[in-house]
Inverse folding.
């Protein structure tokens, strides 16, 4: 790999941390100014990329036009926000910026709980994990009621906090599919449901679909993440070929059955 002539992001197309950057750039109208290079996580990392990242494999990674490396999605988001300052996506008012940062800080536990839930292989834990996931949504609901009682988004428009959370709202389609998880139709979740649904529908956040996520994340649902191979399988559900659009939908009963490569269209 040579030094790029413009900003380059090394990424995984369905990675939520990578999608954040795409959403931010779409909101700014600058997506075309950044080159996204796809990394196949089912294969060993390219040695030249490992040299750039000093041996780390986490993605996304941004390389500036003069060859400098920036890691961690939130750090890269802030870099792009500062570099492409207009239009600003983060709030300019210090207090409002603090509010969106406080909401963004809730993403860590929210993300972790969703992935622990989908990767679970013990049917006896399902109800506990379901309850824990609802607690995470309840925290978001409470925050939004306190700081944005009558709005749809946190502030007037889809912004920084929405960019942070939307990729996980999308990834958690795998909870709906493999765990039959759903937000109860109750007033206690009404505010966060409004927010989530508006985020999912926003034009700047359409880089992926429920079908793509459900199909590619099948191995996560069976307890194997980041391109790892399950027993008896020769190919990961994260492979690029055959294209996910040509594959059948995976079986929903993850606790009772393990699909073969052939059954997954791999």
């Amino acid at each position: 790999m040579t030094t790029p002539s413009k900003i380059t992001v090394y990424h995984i197309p369905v990675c939520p941390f990578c999608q954040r950057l795409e959403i931010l750039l779409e909101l700014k109208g600058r997506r075309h100014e950044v080159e996204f290079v796809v990394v196949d996580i089912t294969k060993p990392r390219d040695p030249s990329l490992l040299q750039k990242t000093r041996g780390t494999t986490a993605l996304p990674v941004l390389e500036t036009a003069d060859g400098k490396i920036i890691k961690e999605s939130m750090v890269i988001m802030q870099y792009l926000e500062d570099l492409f300052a207009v239009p600003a996506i983060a709030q300019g008012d210090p207090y409002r910026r603090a509010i969106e940062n406080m909401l963004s800080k809730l993403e860590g536990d929210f993300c972790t709980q969703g992935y622990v839930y989908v990767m679970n292989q013990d049917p006896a834990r399902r109800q506990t994990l379901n309850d824990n996931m609802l607690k995470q949504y309840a925290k978001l609901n409470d925050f939004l009621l306190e700081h944005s009682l009558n709005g749809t988004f946190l502030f007037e428009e889809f912004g920084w906090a929405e960019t942070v959370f939307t990729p996980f709202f999308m990834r958690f389609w795998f909870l709906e599919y493999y765990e039959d998880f759903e937000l109860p139709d109750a007033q206690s979740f009404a505010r966060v449901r409004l927010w989530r649904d508006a985020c999912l529908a926003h034009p700047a956040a359409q880089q992926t679909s429920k079908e793509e996520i459900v199909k590619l994340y099948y191995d996560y649902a069976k307890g194997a993440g980041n391109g790892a191979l399950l027993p008896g399988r020769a190919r990961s559900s994260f492979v690029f070929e055959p294209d996910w659009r040509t594959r059948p939908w995976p079986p929903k009963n993850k606790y009772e059955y393990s699909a073969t490569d052939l059954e997954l269209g791999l």
The first strand starts at residue 8 and ends at 11.
